[in-house]
Give the backbone structure.
Amino acid sequence: MTIEDRREREKRELHELILKTAAEMFRKHGYEKTSMRAIAQAIDYSPGTIYRYFKDKDELMFAISVNGFRIFYQYLSVVRHIDNPMERLQVLGRQYIRFAIDHPAYYDLMFIMPDPIKGIGEGEHWEDGHRSHTVLVDVIKECMQEGHFKGHDPIDLSLMIWGQVHGILALYLRHRMEMYTDKKHEVLLNDALEAFNSIIRNS
């Protein structure tokens, strides 16, 4: 590896470290209460180093969102090899939950916290965000072609299915399941998803 290659690798690693640390701090302390200086201190770099990568906190938040949806799309993309659309839809739900459990800070910022930047989901750089939604809508349309969900609109169904899975996840991530004591909460989370899958299989 050349010196230039090593420098490029170190730049990428620092870029990823900034994104990961900022996401965790935004989640823990809130976007407004987290400063660029605090993020720099958390990773033992000067604020000037952060500003070499991101001109301000809004740009950093946007980069976190773009990176989060890039990772999210990778999780959803594993269903592409599944021929049966109903099975593909159910695996999408499992992958959605897996992403949230593996990357809770990203999930919180992407789907739970109020959007701190107007228009963050707009523009040409939002490709993975739009593609992630398209994956769900397209598989619903394929399910409808095979006779499922008769009489419904695929966009309406996408919101209903997304909202159902997201709602269960939000309860889990926000520790709002304490009244359920018979099972470990992660087991309950997955069992609830499978119960929902059973309902939509028979629709």
